[in-house]
Amino acid sequence: METAVEEKGVVECTAFNSTECRGAITGVRDALYVLNGKWKIPLIVALSEGPLRFKDIQRSLGDITPKILSKELKELELNEFVIRTVYSTTPVTVTYQLTPYSRSLDKVMKELKDWGIQHRQRIVASRKANSSN
Amino acid sequence: METAVEEKGVVECTAFNSTECRGAITGVRDALYVLNGKWKIPLIVALSEGPLRFKDIQRSLGDITPKILSKELKELELNEFVIRTVYSTTPVTVTYQLTPYSRSLDKVMKELKDWGIQHRQRIVASRKANSSN
DNA sequence: CGGTATCCTAATAGATACTG
DNA sequence: CAGTATCTATTAGGATACCG
Lengths: 133, 133
What we know:
mainly alpha, three-stranded antiparallel beta sheet, 59% helix, 11% strand, DNA-binding, WH_DNA-bd_sf (chains A, B), transcription (chains A, B), Transcriptional regulator (chains A, B), DNA-binding (chains A, B), transcription regulation (chains A, B)
């Protein structure tokens, strides 16, 4: 009965209040929550080239403040997308790198990206259509 | 050259500053933006069973205020997920229904849901593992 | 360098009341 | 019924300064 819902997809839920459907909504919301905000995606992309130090990430993203960067990295750590490593140099060196688990996002990200690109084109096209009326 | 990026997926971008990669980030962010917030997903699910009137949607979602519901529905309309129809009864009747285009979200939603469910289980499991240490 | 602490702004959501 | 208006609460995000 779980697989029934799995196969049907979220928008096919026939009973909004059913446990299965609420599970689906919760699933989608959990995923959105984890990826959300201004910095999560750029951060994952930046780290996808390899480990980076705190300051280097900051430079890479351009204008993120240390407070926000710190918060975002902690969240990514909690979700096990990122590992923080401390080296006992002087001064101390800290690097952040993506975990293998972060790759579990690949399919989600691809779908999001494809849909987003397609949607933007659609919106732009429909704006043009309207302005030429 | 666009397909090259398509196939590689977002986290494989090798040049953060490349046009292609920024396009991918923008794509993902556009998609997240459109689905985001507390109500978009529950709203789409609620309407997936068929057209509903304003008040019925409100009841269906439980505790959304008319102001927020109105705003959310307008955004869904702008993105062409929803069509608003006015019937000249007295008092006037208004229904909202999903468009065929809203189905273009099916794949994204399925990936989000699957990943979200899997991720929640993983987090819960790792909490248990930690508490039994 | 790798952060934290404090203060501040802007966007988002909600409560409540009201209108055509 | 189908909303809008007004006001308030919460949140995300940022500027700036400072610490080990």
